[in-house]
Task: structure prediction
Amino acid sequence: MGAGWLEGLLATLDGAMSMPVLLWVGMRLLGERDNYLLVLGGVPSWWLIGGHVVEGAASRLDTGLFLILFVSLGGLFSLAGFQTQKD
Result:
């Protein structure tokens, strides 16, 4: 363990946890219900895709492709949530 490992760990945890928490809080504030699949699918997607891009392991093209993948997964998860709603 070198200098700054604690700060690096805290920054990683902050980046990994901020998006799922903001997603959940925002959807609750907007009155969205039955968004469990979106949150449960979005959190691992964010950790894998966002973590890979943030760590600098991706080029500009890779970053764009990861963004498209993340948006596509989010859209699929949200569509699956709409079909389970009852009128």
